[in-house]
Amino acid sequence: MTRVxxxxxxxxxxxxxxxxxxxxxxxxxxxxxxxxxxETEVSRKGIKFKPEYYLGTGWxxxxxxxxxxxxxxxxxxxxxxxxxxxxxxxxxxxxxIRMGLRHEFGHAVNYAYKLYLxxxxxxxxxxxxxxxxxxYRFNPWSKRHVKHLPDYYAQKHPDEDWAETFAVWLxxxxxxxxxxxxxxxxxxxxxxxxxxxxIAKKIPLNLRIKRDVPIEKVKMTxxxxxxxxxxxxxxxxxxVEDIEAMRRIFPNGxxxxxxxxxxxxxxxxxxxxxVSKLTDELNVSYHSAKRMLHVLESxxxxxxxxxxxxxEDEKIIAISVYLSWKFSRD
Length: 330
Known about the structure:
- By secondary structure, the protein is mainly alpha-helical.
- It has two domains: 19-217, no CATH class; 236-329, no CATH class.
- Helix content is 53%, strand content 5%.
- Strands 1-3-2 form a three-stranded mixed sheet, with helices on one face. Strands 4-5 form a two-stranded antiparallel ribbon.
- The longest helix has 19 residues, at 94-112.
- The chain is elongated, with a radius of gyration of 27 Å.
- The model has no long low-confidence stretch (mean pLDDT 92).
């Protein structure tokens, strides 16, 4: 494992034990770029409205609000990597993310301008108040619905039919007039096209903000959310063992932050001495000993482990005992 791979793996493992409610409520920079791209697509259509975005446990737009929920794993690269490993289909790529954003934007526009109350909307898409079913039957050959998200999602509910139709209409280069020519779905797309021109200069009727499950309310850890173990994320059982050992030696939870020192600096300071002792006393190769001390130092740094001033000797002895046990076992 290279140093870069070690750091990436340690960061993923660290996030497993973080309660989701303690994650910063901000988006990854690359994800923000995708939001801006979709907002630019909307702006080019003459629509000035923008929804509110927040981090939650999945995709969604709260019913009759302008609040769009974005999965928390789009907060940083480590969480994205965990999602990619744990999700059945992996994490969404940039194209799929834009598709999802266009869909949720469609919901928000519908709620902001209360389009679902329009008689023509009801005629084309159906009863907005129809009950949602978790499982639904779909016709893969239907000409009445557009095809955007997987599983023929437009057939799930009238509101989803609208959002999917909006997303196809919004997608640059979708050639919807040609692709859906002579199909019932074209009437829906033409309605979207006409309606968006109509509301472009209008003030939204509803700017209600309501968050469904924001990350601030999610007490479970990332590990609990996925039902994951360290072994699901780390390719190395030994690395997991080293993490557990260092967290036992340097436990967090100090009542006071006074006189605390970074544990990694302590390991770094005494690494040359411990490497020397390992090579002389246990016949461990210099390369193996140095690499092991680097791993322990990286663990301390990643997990921000601390030690109290005056406990240095005790901690170095504990590390030395652990290393002696580890290398004598091997």
